[in-house]
Amino acid sequence: MRTIYRLLLFFFAILFAHNVYCQQVSVRASIDSTLILIGKQSHLSFEVAQPKHVVVQFPLFADTLVKGINVLGKPRMDTVDLGHDRIQVKQTYTITSFDSALYYIPSYKLIAGRDTFKTNPMSLKVITYNVDTAKQSIFDIKKVYSPPFDWAAFFRLMLIIALILIVLAVVIYVVWKYILKKPIPFIEKGNAVLLPHQRAIQDLDHISSQKLWQHGREKEYYTRLTEVIREYMQARFNISALEMTSAEILKEAMMIQTEYPAAYDSLEKLLQVGDLVKFAKLHPVAEENELSLNICYLFVNQTKEEESSSEATPADKKNEGTLPSEPKLH
Fold this sequence. Notes:
Layout: H1 2-24, E1 26-31, E2 35-37, E3 41-51, E4 56-57, E5 64-66, E6 69-83, E7 86-96, E8 101-105, E9 109-112, E10 115-118, E11 122-127, H2 151-179, H3 196-210, H4 218-237, H5 246-252, H6 254-259, H7 261-279, H8 286-303, H9 314-319
Parallel strand pairs: 2-11
Antiparallel strand pairs: 1-3, 3-7, 4-9, 5-6, 6-7, 8-11, 9-10
């Protein structure tokens, strides 16, 4: 009996302590206005009176309280000291609705330690405007207007476009000049299309001005010379010289030997020297290099197509003359 009596006494002590604790924590939910116009705002508050040492967990809402009621922003928390080691914590939500109806707000659970407390249920009525469309016309809240012109954004756009164009121009120049290794074409207005021999003389003048062999670039020098002659023969005699070997060119140019025997001999000498320099690493002396250039001028002048005009280019007049002597090979 004594044991049973102690157990009952212990049970009633725990029950009494729990009731006292529950009386120390009280919760309440309230709303500023239970009747609002559509689109207007109201404030929903959860108030908890509790001891200072108690931690209470409030309900959390994302963007919807219940279907049809929207939560605007984050909740606002206020704390008031009630004295006697007690505080009142208030958490407030701003709510609104865009559908007219009577909404039921259920009770929510607040957790304090190991105990759960429920708030009182509430209701919110949302009403709309009564518009007499027969007397009142519907119009926009504000007039439609064009935004001011943004000069800063305009200049930024123009600067970006200019930079893109500059970068594209630089890329095209680098690819054309250094990767494809072709001269940058410049078209001059008013210039007539050059004849094959005029183009060849112009290219030979350019090679002469570069002074390639004077800087030890004999291979490049003879490569350029033979390319000019090959291009000239292709344009003048319709011989695919750019795709042929030296032997094939000489075989294909037998008609040149018949009509221009001296020019054919100079072509043969030029191709022989060019092949020795390019493939046998021959290093001609200065006189031979100058002679090879003069051979190119003479070949072009001796085989050129007769012009209808009596005018001749300065390079044609300069290089007219007799065929120089055979170059010496070392």
